[in-house]
Write a sequence for this structure.
């Protein structure tokens, strides 16, 4: 509301004039039963409210109009600016002075509050940037060092490397490049979310295919984990953004691989919620439900509410990270009008539950066509 009033100075003057006129007309209805001094207090309140939302000049205009309205409409003789009583004249002068002081003080307080908010915002921004840079100094340096080290080894002419060693070095470079790309993608995605640039491109998606593709790309990270798929073979297609869903599942599975001990099990469950038999080609507004859980240590109970905060890393986390993965997941889910919840399972481990109210299309209907 504050921003709306500040868009146009002409509008602010109009708002000030109209507000005083309306307040004066309302007070006029009770002029015979309410003492004019009380009406003066009410008009002071109106000026104070204007000072909360408007700039100083429109507020001063409102204070002047309030004083004139008080004299013209409520101090006898009515409908004239003439004042018979010295006490009434003094009261009117004091009203105008108090209205001006009230307007100026309220406006200054509002400016101070804005300045404090700007200062706090800058401080928080600097804190976030420092946290980000601290994270990136490690998260980006490690894969870069691996790439440079492998290249340096391969370029040494006086060292004979076996084909297996060369292949291993190439594999390390590929793995490091993928990790580097993952961090850069997260930064770009967070930038897109912050700018509000993301517009989902909804189309028919095979969520089962996305899950298998993601796990295949993360085969190195999941080599010491057990993956359990609980996906219906007759799972319908859902109208979602393929790229966003790919990143959502990737981040969640990658997070599970990094924050669970070796040998832990990651379970991916995809189902849909329908109220009736799935006979029609297209059933609109059905739920796509995705659950990604593990049997690791779960999240610290006193920090679990901050899991989706930007740049937040858990105090006892030993795997580093920029703290962007889960916040990006939440942003990508919500931009598709979905919801995501996180809780620790009773038997240990973390459980992410995603729900999307979307259109779905039976695969068997495509085969029939």
């Amino acid at each position: 509301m504050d921003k709306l009033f500040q868009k146009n100075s002409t509008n602010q003057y109009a708002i000030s004039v109209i507000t005083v006129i309306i307040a004066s007309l309302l007070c006029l209805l009770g002029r015979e039963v309410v003492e004019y001094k009380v009406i003066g207090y009410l008009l002071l309140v109106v000026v104070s409210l204007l000072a909360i939302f408007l700039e100083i000049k429109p507020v001063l205009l409102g204070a002047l109009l309030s004083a004139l309205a008080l004299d013209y409409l409520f101090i006898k003789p009515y409908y004239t600016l003439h004042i018979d009583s010295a006490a009434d004249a003094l009261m009117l002068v004091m009203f105008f002075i108090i209205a001006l002081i009230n307007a100026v003080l309220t406006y200054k307080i509002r400016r101070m509050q804005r300045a404090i908010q700007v200062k706090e915002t800058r401080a928080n921004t600097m804190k976030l940037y420092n946290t980000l840079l601290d994270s990136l100094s490690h998260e980006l340096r490690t894969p870069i060092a691996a790439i440079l080290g492998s290249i340096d080894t391969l370029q040494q002419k006086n060292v004979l490397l076996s084909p297996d060693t060369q292949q291993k070095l190439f594999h390390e470079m590929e793995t490091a490049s993928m990790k580097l790309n993952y961090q850069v993608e997260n930064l770009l995605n967070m930038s897109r979310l912050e700018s509000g640039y993301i517009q989902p491109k909804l189309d028919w998606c095979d969520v089962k295919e996305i899950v298998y593709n993601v796990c295949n790309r993360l085969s190195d990270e999941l080599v010491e984990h057990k993956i359990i798929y609980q996906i219906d073979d007759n799972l319908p297609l859902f109208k979602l953004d393929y790229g966003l869903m790919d990143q959502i599942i990737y981040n969640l599975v990658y997070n599970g691989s990094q924050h669970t001990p070796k040998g832990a099990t990651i379970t991916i469950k995809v189902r849909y919620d329908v109220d009736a038999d799935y006979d029609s080609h297209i059933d609109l507004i059905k739920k796509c439900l995705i659950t990604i859980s593990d049997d690791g240590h779960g999240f610290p109970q006193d920090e679990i509410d901050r899991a989706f905060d930007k740049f937040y890393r858990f105090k006892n986390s030993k795997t580093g990270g920029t703290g962007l993965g889960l916040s990006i997941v939440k942003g990508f889910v919500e931009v598709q009008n979905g919801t995501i919840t996180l809780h620790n399972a009773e038997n240990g481990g973390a459980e992410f539950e995603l729900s999307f109210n979307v259109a779905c299309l039976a695969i068997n209907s495509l085969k029939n066509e």
Notes: The CA atoms of residues 40 and 345 lie 63 Å apart. Strands lie at 203-205, 226-231, 237-240, 265-273, 282-294, 338-344, 350-361. The chain has eleven helices and seven strands. Confidence is low (pLDDT under 50) at residues 1-7, 275-282.
